[in-house]
Amino acid sequence: MLEDKLLFLELAKAASVSFVALLPLVNPVGTAPIFQAFVRQYPRDIQETLARKVALYGLLLLVSSLFLGVKILAFFGISLNVVQVAGGMVIAHTGWELLRHESPVDDTAVRETPVQAPLTRAFYPLTLPLTVGPGSISTAIGLGAHLNSNGIELMIASTLGMVVLSIVVWIVYHNAHRLEQLLGTTGTEILNRLSSFVLFALGLQILWNGLAVALRRP
């Protein structure tokens, strides 16, 4: 009985650590205004579909990184530092493009584009790198490397934490339009610009972190 309780506590801890470690990196509340900037001009049903797909794709990406990340990086001879550098560049580029343009989506293009076209944005850039970036991927890979030696049960528990996180992402993105309605046009524009700048700065920080570690190597 005592062993069962200890195992339950270990599983709960693994799930909690996974959720708590990834939540500030995924930061659905902070990225929701940027998500809404990408999708606001699409019909509501497409916005809901995109929110659902981003949550699902994000979960698959994190779980894949948890179970396969170390093996994939080792197979290609890629270090986590390189993942940070490349991912930081992509995030910084996305933030910069959002800062430069009035809207990431053109009104005319939306009216003339088939329904399937906006859905192609679900993985890139809405899931990767906007929602699940190199920081989240690196953390998931690190969790996998740590938990893999302690048994498959802890890996599954960590996956449950990621499932809860994906549900949070879906709820926040699904209701991103409500935040826009609450803030109004001016407030939304200010929040979009601030979020875009933070995204740009975050990309540069991730890029710098990867470079700093790589440059310290002999």
UniProtKB/TrEMBL annotation:
Question: Where are its TM segments located?
Answer: 12-35, 56-80, 122-147, 154-173, 193-215
Keywords (alphabetical) are: Cell membrane, Membrane, Transmembrane, Transmembrane helix
**Where is this gene product found?**
Cell membrane
Cite the Pfam families for this sequence: MarC
Listed under GO cellular component are:
plasma membrane
- Chief localisation class: membrane
Provide the membrane topology annotation: Multi-pass membrane protein
Asked whether the keyword Ion transport is assigned, the reply is no
The record's listing under NCBIfam families reads: NAAT family transporter (TIGR00427)
**Which family does the UniProt entry place this protein in?**
Belongs to the UPF0056 (MarC) family.
Report what the protein is called.
Answer: UPF0056 membrane protein
Q: Which organism is it from?
A: Paludibaculum fermentans
